[in-house]
Amino acid sequence: MASKETLAIRAQAERSQNREHSVPLYLTSSFTFEDAEMGRAMFADEISGNVYSRYSNPNVDEFITKVCLLEGGEDGIAFASGMAAIFATFAGSLQAGDHVVASKALFGSAIQILNKIMPKWGVTTTFVDGHNLEQWEAATQENTKFYFCESPSNPGLELTDLRALSAIAKKHNVALAVDNCFATPVIQNPIELGADLVMHSATKYMDGQGRVLGGILVGRKDLIEPIRFFARHTGPAMSPFNAWVLSKSLETLFVRMRAHSENALTLARALEGNAVLAAVHYPFLESHPQYDLAKQQMKYGGAILTLEVKGGFAAVNALTQHLEIASISPNLGDTRTILTHPASTTHSKLSKEERAEVGITDGLVRVAVGLEAIDDLVADFKQALDKVAAL
């Protein structure tokens, strides 16, 4: 069987009668039937095929197929955004009285879904320290249906021992869902480590150039089915155009993630020990508290590092004013290096106490290291930090 790197490039939808080399765009809202009987059979699920692009589309199907191959999923669903994938996972699977155990170290919107939206339907969540396996087990109840974590987490880069957590989940007959956005299937494969479902914000590294929105969920077929029912009837569908872009982008995912990771490690090492910084966090730095775990379950350290800037928001603001290459944006996953201040943007809706619990201080900045020449990036960050030090 071909390697995943080859499959990311060569797996594609069936060619049309035009024998195209690159898959065409199927920009159609609906599809035709040969006769009324064919339409009846398709709606009755007696035969498969495309009916309506809210349900399926050749471009979307190709993207799903590729991600299933890369992650080892049996089935999958593509969504309009990564948050739609997370919301649909819980809304499509859970009912009143169910319970979730989740890591405290989640993206802000994921916490809002579990804290503010799911309780409206009688679904409760207990948050735990993602790295503390004893807390996961202690929080598990008879009605617990899901464990949910990010590893590495956004933005604190906290790791969860996925193999160990999956063993606890199986012991209690709980499904383990992992947000693998930061690592991508190039760096980490949660299903191979025992996870049941894996989701991504495809907006990030699967696109890789900041162009389109998208989300993807892959995993066990029996768990995907109720989520597909929910998605089919509520409509958070990925557009065919976005799917086409994302599928083409997967062809360069392996090359890009290796280069992102190499740049990030070089920048992290160059900045570690800088007098303006209280700390530099990166999974493949020996100083990371979970360095050994990172080396066990990740192939590379990824593209994200965090800097703890002395002096809080004022110093962070000064740093952003002096950087000449890096963009200041709430996004990540671009070819261009992006700096984000989570406490005032992506995680600003959390209380200061909630942010402190997962290491998000006023001085923390997330750096999504891009593909620029690494010598240029190192020089840019050093000159900006020198100017902050001179204030």
Structure description:
The chain is an alpha/beta fold. Helix content is 40%, strand content 15%. It contains 15 helices and twelve strands. It has helices at 4-10, 36-43, 58-71, 82-93, 108-117, 133-139, 162-171, 184-187, 221-234, 240-250, 253-271, 291-297, 312-322, 352-357, 374-389, and strands at residues 75-79, 99-103, 124-128, 144-150, 175-179, 197-201, 215-219, 277-281, 304-309, 327-328, 338-340, 364-368. The strands form two sheets. Strands 1-7-6-5-4-2-3 form a seven-stranded mixed sheet, with helices on both faces. Strands 8-9-12-11-10 form a five-stranded mixed sheet. It is globular, with a radius of gyration of 22 Å. The N and C termini lie far apart (59 Å). The mean pLDDT is 96.
- Globally, the shape reads globular
Beta-strand proportion: 5-15%
Output the structural class. alpha/beta
- Main beta sheet: 7 strands, mixed
Structural Rg: 22 Å
Widest sheet, order of strands: 1-7-6-5-4-2-3
SS element count, helices: 15
Overall mean pLDDT:
96
- In the predicted model, the low-confidence regions spanning at least 5 consecutive residues are none
Along the chain, the helix and strand elements come as: HHHEHEHEHEHEHEEHHHEHEHEEHEH
> How many strand units?
12
**How many angstroms separate the termini?**
59 Å
Helical amount among residues, as a percent range? 25-40%
